[in-house]
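Weekly structure sync, notes
Attendees: PL (lead), two postdocs, one rotation student
Agenda item 3: pending single-chain targets
PL asked that the sequence for the first pending target be pasted directly into the notes so everyone works from the same version. It is reproduced below exactly as submitted, 70 residues in total.
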Amino acid sequence: MSRVLANATVDVIKPNTPRTIGNFRVEVWGVAPNDYVRTYEIMAQSDTMAAQEGIRRFVDEIEALLPSEE
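Predicted structure, written out during the meeting:
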């Protein structure tokens, strides 16, 4: 299976505080040939963790779309 490469940007919907986790809008886009765009709303402790989770979700989705190599 070929690697799925992706980038992400994160917008803060609700910032995190020491007592609560934040809410983030994460837009992820892939690099050709998987040049899809997905947007996720993710609750996380930081924008970095939200970006990592968004990319993980994107990779899972794209890998499910790709034909399996058997």
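Discussion points:
- Residues 37 and 45 are 24 Å apart (CA to CA).
- Residues 6-65 form one domain.
Action: rotation student to compare against the earlier draft before next sync.
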